[in-house]
Design brief:
Keywords: Nucleus, Ribosome biogenesis. GO terms for molecular function: GTP binding; GTPase activity; U3 snoRNA binding. Its main location: nucleus. It contains 19 helices and 37 strands. The chain is an alpha+beta fold. Among the domains are: 175 residues, P-loop containing nucleotide triphosphate hydrolases (Rossmann fold); 116 residues, Elongation Factor Tu (Ef-tu), domain 3 (Beta Barrel), CATH 2.40.30; 99 residues, Beta Barrel (Thrombin, subunit H); 115 residues, Translation factors (Elongation Factor Tu (Ef-tu), domain 3, Beta Barrel), CATH 2.40.30. The strands form six sheets. Strands 2-3-4-1-5-6-7 form a seven-stranded mixed β-sheet, with helices on both faces. Strand 9 and strand 10 form a beta hairpin. About 5% of the residues have low confidence.
């Protein structure tokens, strides 16, 4: 066998060239010199952060222990001997489900259970086996009681949703249940538990399929919840164990503030005012007796004192005789008490410099305003009939006001009740209206021959509301196809019609002063230097404040409650319970509120900007007319004329300050006076410096096209307008950029230069912007007396008639 050949190095070894490290030593040379020794100053910050395996494991165990202790602490804050009982809301998801039958099952779940019912309808159950206390409340069920259900769920700890297997697989939730679930899911459901009743009443062969069908239905709405059966006492005990042991889902808006669900309510009159005594368990955070409280339906009030009566629902009643008297916990200090002033009172002479001189007064008197004679003529009057109408009024020239929506659609004012005699097409309009009258008479004659069923159907329909909805849909569709595009008026110069507008080089980067040309209403509001920083400070102080501790059974003395408002509140509310919220500092002062809203899929009618909505933000509910803008990250936000379905916008309006997080629900009043949920969202900020810019787009068409220049017409109709808007940049539909070079003739033609040759089908646009502000029309949803409501209705009628008169005179 041949020997294997191996390579043996010879006497001449190859030596590679050593690496040159320069003037410093290499890392290997330094390690060899130090021989493992490390100096104290040589340890880097990264080396200090490095931990060994045992240290990391110990740190993870400490974090896990802290989280476990925090969860246990939250659980021990409810249901114990010295804490508030679990407040459970029994919510039937079907109108024909009786909640009292569910309470009867829960009462019989244990032989040692102690059941007591208060005068307000709250059922207290003490379960010695679990050493826990429970309180059950049942809101009124039926159409029209949705807002009461929302108020109950704001302060409850658990929501026990009751369903029934007796109504079939298709009616786990009926129509009312679906409606309520959409609302409470938008607000936030506190710790839901789903109970299926009447399963024993159906065929035993169908019970498993019925429960599976109910579980499949619930999985679509609440994927993490398991349907629990509740027909026997043992099943009721399982539900009680589930309520007392499960992890609580907190609503942060309520958890950050003290709240109290009234068990006993007493009103002590003192003339026109009185003191409202509300007794119950305090939940949430500690209560400040010098702060303000809010009662939904009544308003904001001050506290006189806080008492501590004996708790009638203790687990251990052997020591009840020790503290049978009522103790005074705290009394308000008038010097430290928060004021009820919600608006700032501006000084009319603020920033006034000097009195005008005689020369300035004479010069001002010489400058007469441009007025024109307007004769208010009803529709259909001929020119001869209009000549006999003597009332002639003087109005100023047409101005662009934020109240007018004349920028939206050119045909919005065609159906007003009055028209002007100075209209050039007056005779044509009269002839058109006469023909419309003849057509209407023909339609009346035809409709008289219709069937009786058609007449009954027509009587049930509100055709006025249907026509308004159709008009709104057409306007929203037009605005979607040609966003912000309007026609330049022929009879008014554009530099007068758009005198409040300006051009921007770039909507994203061009500056806009947030303190420029503010309305007078901004002098009535309050503003923070930094809203986010103030929010963090106030929420941290609320958690650390040591006042009336939560969990105590207390009596709040709410002072200066009007007797008329209280009597109207008692007569209007079906439930006898009163809910009291403790307010954080500054939460009663007016500011500009910005909320992010998203349309509900069921709502398909577009909402016009400045249209009235009922908004529920946190613990408040009020009526406003918001303006909408795009929800973007820039410092300027484009005004939206319509809030369309499947869109997300930011709504701005005047409202009292609230600190997020807070859920927001927007309702629209239906023709039958019921409420329809149209949008849901969250509170963004209370910042008056949010800039909302309304855009108008003036369009022009190319008449002659050269290589890089073109003659544009139909954008303006006066030479002065071309010179006035010459600095504003032009854009085209195909993406070209350009500017105005010079005016051609006296009828608005202009020569423009672009960065490329225009197409024959291209269109030139000019974007103009102005800042818009919401109108001060905030109104709290309070229950008022009949006399006060009558006075408000008369005032609303006067305001509406005055607005119609103003619109007619402007035309």
């Amino acid at each position: 066998m041949a020997d294997h050949a191996f390579h043996r190095p010879g006497p001449l070894k190859q030596t590679n060239k050593a690496h040159k490290t320069g003037r410093h030593r290499s890392k290997g040379a330094i390690d060899n010199a130090l021989k493992g020794k490390v100096g104290l100053k040589a340890i880097s910050h990264k080396h200090k952060l490095q931990q060994r395996k045992e240290q990391r494991r110990n740190q993870m165990n400490q974090l896990r222990k802290n989280k476990r202790d925090e969860v246990l602490q939250q659980k021990r804050q409810l249901g114990g001997q010295n804490t508030a009982p679990f407040l459970v809301c029994l919510l039937p998801m079907h109108e024909h489900i009786d909640a009292n039958s569910a309470i009867a099952i829960l009462q019989s779940c244990d032989s040692e259970i102690v059941v007591e019912k208060s005068a307000s309808g709250i059922v207290y159950m003490n379960l010695p086996r679990f050493k826990q206390r429970f309180a059950f409340v049942v809101p009124p069920v039926g159409r029209g009681n949705e807002l009461i259900v929302l108020d109950y769920l704001k302060v409850c700890d658990t929501t026990l949703m009751l369903t029934s297997a007796a109504f079939g697989d298709d009616e786990i939730f009926d129509r009312w249940g679906q409606r309520v679930f959409n609302m409470i899911s938008a607000q936030g459901i506190p710790t839901p538990v789903v109970a299926l009743m009447d399963l024993e009443s159906i065929n035993p062969k169908r019970r498993i399929a019925a429960k599976q069908s109910a579980q499949k239905f619930i999985d679509k709405l609440l994927p993490e919840e398991k349907v629990m059966q509740m027909d026997t006492a043992a099943e009721g005990l399982n539900i009680m164990r589930r309520i007392g042991g499960q992890k609580k889902r907190l609503l942060h808006n309520v958890n950050n503030r003290p709240n109290l669900f009234g068990d006993l309510v007493e009103y002590v009159p003192n003339g026109e005012m009185g003191t409202l005594k509300v007794t119950g368990y305090l939940r949430g955070q500690s209560l400040n007796v010098n702060g303000l409280v809010h009662i939904p339906g009544l308003g904001d009030f001050q506290l006189g004192q806080v008492d501590a009566p004996p708790d009638p629902n203790k687990l251990d009643k052997k020591r009840d005789g020790e503290l049978a008297e009522v103790r005074l916990l705290d009394r308000s200090d008038p010097a430290k008490q928060t004021s009820l002033q919600a608006e700032n009172i501006p000084d009319p002479m603020d920033a006034e410099q000097t009195w005008p001189t005689e020369e300035e007064i004479e010069a001002a008197q010489k400058e007469t305003k441009k007025t024109k004679l307007i004769k208010r003529v009803p529709k259909g009057y001929s020119e001869y009939q209009a000549a006999w109408i003597p009332d002639v009024e003087e109005v100023e020239g047409q101005e662009d006001d934020d109240d007018d929506d004349d920028d939206d659609m050119s045909g919005d004012e065609e159906d007003e009740d009055f028209m002007s005699c100075d209209n050039k097409s007056f005779e044509d309009e009269c002839e058109k209206r006469e023909s419309d009258t003849e057509e209407y008479l023909d339609s009346v004659s035809v409709s008289s021959e219709a069937a009786v069923n058609d007449e009954k159907y027509d009587q049930q329909m509100d055709f006025q509301e249907e026509r308004e909805t159709l008009k709104k849909l057409q306007q929203a569709r037009t605005d979607q196809l040609w966003p912000d595009e309007i026609d330049t008026p022929l009879d008014v110069p554009a530099h007068e019609r758009f005198q409040k507008y300006r051009g921007l080089e770039s909507f994203r980067t061009s500056p806009w002063d947030a303190k420029e040309n503010l309305p007078s209403d901004y002098a009535r509001i309050y503003q923070f230097q930094n809203f986010d920083r103030t929010k963090r400070r106030i929420l941290a102080e609320a958690k650390e404040f040591e006042g009336i501790l939560p969990g105590l059974y207390i009596t709040l003395h709410v002072i200066n409650v009007p007797a008329s408002r209280w009597s109207a509140f008692r007569s209007a509310h079906i439930s006898d319970n009163v809910i009291v919220y403790g307010m954080l500092p500054h939460e009663h002062q007016m500011c500009v509120m910005n909320v992010v809203l998203q349309r509900i899929p069921d709502s398909e009618v577009p909402l016009k900007s400045k249209e009235q909505l009922i908004v529920q933000c946190g613990y408040r509910r009020f009526v406003v007319n918001p303006i909408y803008s795009q929800h973007t990250n820039g410092d300027k936000h484009k005004f939206e004329r319509f809030f369309r379905p499947y869109e997300t916008v930011c709504a701005t309006f005047y409202a009292p300050i609230q600190f997020p997080p807070a859920a927001v629900l927007a309702f629209k009043v239906n023709p039958d006076s019921s409420l329809a949920l149209v949008a849901r969202g969250r509170l963004l900020s209370c910042n008056p410096d949010r800039i909302v810019l309304k855009r108008v787009v003036l369009s022009g068409h190319p008449m002659r096209i050269n290589r890089k220049s073109a003659t544009i017409r139909y954008m303006f109709f006066y030479k002065e307008d071309v010179e006035y808007f010459k600095p504003v940049k032009l854009r085209t539909k195909c993406g070209r950029m350009g500017h105005i070079k010079e005016s051609l003739g006296t009828h608005g033609h202009m020569k423009c230069y672009f960065d490329g040759q225009l197409r024959s089908y291209d269109t030139a646009f000019m974007y103009l912007y102005k800042r818009v502000f919401p109108k001060w029309n905030y109104e709290e949803c309070l229950v008022r007396s009949a006399e006060h409501s009558r006075q408000e209705n008369e005032a609303e009628i006067r305001r509406s008639s005055k607005q119609l008169d103003d619109e007619a005179m402007e035309q």
